[in-house]
Amino acid sequence: MLALHDWALVYLILITGACLQGLIGFGLGLFSAPLLFLIAPQLVPVPMILNALVITLALLLANRRYVDKQLAPFSILGGSVGVFLATAVFTLLDLAQYQILFGLSIVCAVLLSVAGFTPRVSGVSSAIAGTLSGFMGTLTSAGGAPMGLLYQTAHQQQIKANLSLFFVYINALSILSLSMADVVNKQDLLLFVYSVPAVIVGYVLSLFFRRYLNLNVIRPLILFIAFCSGLVCIFA
């Protein structure tokens, strides 16, 4: 179990990540997961996936009327494929291999986020983005980049609604799939119970800070921190 000073740092990272997620629709995974992997790797991926399930459910309930009901089934189908592929890969990796794959996934997620191209939103593109997000999300708990890229030109509430719907399903399926592969244990559940209050606090803070922060400045900062953390995971 973590020391008290480690928990203080974990809480700071989780509160910040959850607040960012509440503000712009992503951040808990892409910001918090790589930092936590460096200081408390036992929190990744299972406890972080459970934490992500909590905040995506809250965001979905708050923005449910903006869900794209026509395209959601395609992304969910693709996400299901990605989850099962990631579970199969996860069971074959040792810790060193997982750390490298984790870092590569984070770096790829950042590069996708800053790619600069805008894919056309369709059933096929939703399925492809869903597969990539499901795969990356199960391995790292930070799978929002492909789906975020797909919805990058949408209204902020549409982004939150559609990404949250997708990840409520994917996070729940990831936990079920990892449990069936005997990856989830009691320590994971205990770490989730200890860490989830920070996620709740971060989400509540996002409701307060929403009117005061420049979201256009926050996004590049998240991506920079995530990119650096991913590189450290690869080369550490």
Automatic annotation (TrEMBL):
InterPro entries: TM_pro_TauE-like, TSUP. Keywords: Cell membrane, Membrane, Transmembrane, Transmembrane helix, Transport. It comes from the Bacteria. Pfam families: TauE. It is found in: Cell membrane. It is a multi-pass membrane protein. GO terms for cellular component: plasma membrane. Its main location: membrane. The chain crosses the membrane at residues 7-31, 43-62, 74-93, 99-117, 129-151, 163-184, 191-211, 217-235. The keyword Transmembrane applies. Belongs to the 4-toluene sulfonate uptake permease (TSUP) (TC 2.A.102) family. This is Probable membrane transporter protein. It comes from Paraglaciecola hydrolytica.
